[in-house]
Write a structure and sequence with these properties.
This protein is α+β, with helices and mostly antiparallel strands. The protein has a single domain (75-270), classed as Clam (outer membrane lipoprotein receptor (LolB), chain A), CATH 2.50.20.10. Helices cover 20% and strands 42% of the residues. The chain is built from seven helices and 13 strands. The protein has a 13-stranded antiparallel beta sheet with strand order 6-5-4-3-2-1-13-12-11-10-9-8-7. β5 and β6 (142-144) form a beta hairpin. The longest helix has 12 residues, at 53-64.
Length: 275
């Protein structure tokens, strides 16, 4: 794990005012052009107390892979191997704990992402796989259609998580500002991300540190909240090592990452065709 110093407030303001320059910091040095390019325009007035939705989100992307942002995320996170534990609260209140492994081969968009989640509960072991637009379950080396609730939960983990915000442009989503809100003394920028299917997720981004601390969405008459804790840097990119999902203010899932690595080879045979 590589640890990086926390970005200063001055650097965050720089990102807000000159996002293009912040992204360029990650590029390799190149010879000076024959003609000196014009300096960035500074005639646009920017209210740093009330930045636009794009300024907030683009600055957040930079913070998650400081200082390169989107290009560094694409470069480092070509693959992901993640291992940890998860606790799931069933409808009867019973809590089941599982060890899990998650494998990801990054795509240009979330739709093109290949994802495999292996879960080992005390009584059952199975995998959920997303390969292109197909989602299926592997149990005892056979392929099945997953239960609707399991497929929906798997979908929301992938699409209504951090990448729903960090990759909004690639995914063709739209963003809008929901203003600001203060909870327990912490000020947040509220950003609404609406995907191509019209599903809206609200992200709570720390106005001080530009980290996503919580997101909210509604589905099937229930209100969901996913909170992010224990942030640290892994290979130069920011990762929350603990997440907790609430449904109607009750915990339904809690996940803790044990180890996470990026860029290692992931065997493509882990993602069979659904048939």
């Amino acid at each position: 794990m590589v640890l990086f110093p926390r970005p200063s407030l001055a650097s965050i303001i720089f990102v807000l005012v000159f996002p293009a320059l912040a992204f360029a910091q990650s590029a390799s040095p190149t010879p000076a052009p024959a003609e000196t390019p014009a300096p960035p325009r500074t005639d646009t007035k920017i209210d740093l107390k009330n930045p636009t939705a794009e300024q907030v989100v683009e600055s957040t992307i930079v913070i998650y892979a400081y200082p390169g942002g989107r290009s560094v995320l694409d470069q480092i996170r070509k693959t992901t191997i993640e291992r940890g534990t998860t606790s799931v609260t069933q409808s009867d209140g019973k809590v089941e704990r599982a060890n899990y492994q998650r494998y990801i081969i990054r795509g240009g968009t979330l739709d093109a992402e290949r994802i495999r989640l292996d879960q080992e509960f005390p009584s059952v072991r199975y995998s959920l796989v997303k390969n292109g637009d197909k989602v299926f379950m592997i149990y005892n080396e056979s392929i099945y259609n997953p239960r609707e609730d399991a497929a929906k939960a798997f979908h929301n983990q992938n699409y209504r998580g951090l990448d729903g915000l960090l990759r909004y442009k690639e995914n063709g989503s739209t963003i809008a500002s929901g203003g600001k809100e203060t909870k327990l003394g912490v000020e947040y920028h509220l950003i609404d991300v609406t995907d191509k299917q019209g599903n809206k997720t609200r992200y709570y981004i720390s106005a001080k540190r530009f980290r996503v601390m919580m997101l909210e969405y509604e589905e099937a008459g229930s209100k969901y909240q996913r909170k992010f804790y224990d942030y640290n840097y892994a290979q130069g990119t920011l990762v929350p090592y603990k997440t907790v999902l609430y449904r109607d203010e009750k915990v339904v899932e809690e996940t803790e990452i044990g180890t996470i690595t990026f860029g290692q080879r992931v065997d493509e045979s882990l993602f069979p065709a659904a048939g």
